[in-house]
């Protein structure tokens, strides 16, 4: 995220947020960018949406568009660097790879209309994800498989950690959230982004431990992090992995 401070100008006239759309060419791709004029903003704020699929720009009300263009031009290199790490092509197709629990699996279409999606290894020990069904449904079949695998992993890990803290879990649901990897309500309802199943097993375990720790500590204070570390000794390692690679999981397009 980058920002540019701008001196506030007082006005008695009421103002409302105004939003517009445009596109910008960065790192070989055309990205939609939402420009939001916010009367409470005192700076230009640029954010890359999860997965690098879009940009969001918040600007002070009435800022000249020339200043917006100058801002984007000055930070073009920063955007290229960030988006370059995500990669320009995350399409799913036969021969491409997808990571499951941190292990790259080569996607193979079985050619059969019916059948289950399954993991295996070839004669050379290469991990394979075999997918049946119509070719145009490949991404949909893979995402359904990942959701099922994520649910199985997280249910097992959550119940293990919940027994350790002695707190009940009311429900566990899978979602495709972009703003957070998981959540925990006061009444024990836990939800997770099923995309986490593409991360290494230590990271999946950390996410389960993180949300279970919230059953006892509904905050991110010292007691919470101490409990999280107790449940998951590799907490710091997993947090660092998510910070570096989390957006790559959001970038995978299953549509």
Structure commentary:
By secondary structure, the protein is α/β, with parallel strands linked by helices. Helix content is 36%, strand content 27%. The chain is built from 6 helices and 12 strands. The chain has helices spanning 65-74, 76-86, 138-165, 201-216, 222-231, 235-251, and strands at residues 2-5, 18-26, 29-38, 43-48, 55-60, 97-100, 103-109, 118-121, 127-131, 171-175, 182-184, 189-193. A 5-stranded mixed β-sheet has the order 1-4-5-3-2. A hairpin with a 2-residue loop joins strand 6 (97-100) and strand 7 (103-109). Helix 4 crosses helix 5. The chain is globular, with a radius of gyration of 22 Å. The two termini are 28 Å apart. Residues 1-13 have low confidence and may be disordered.
TL;DR of this structure?
By secondary structure, this protein is α/β, with parallel strands linked by helices. It has helices at residues 65-74, 76-86, 138-165, 201-216, 222-231, 235-251, and strands at 2-5, 18-26, 29-38, 43-48, 55-60, 97-100, 103-109, 118-121, 127-131, 171-175, 182-184, 189-193.
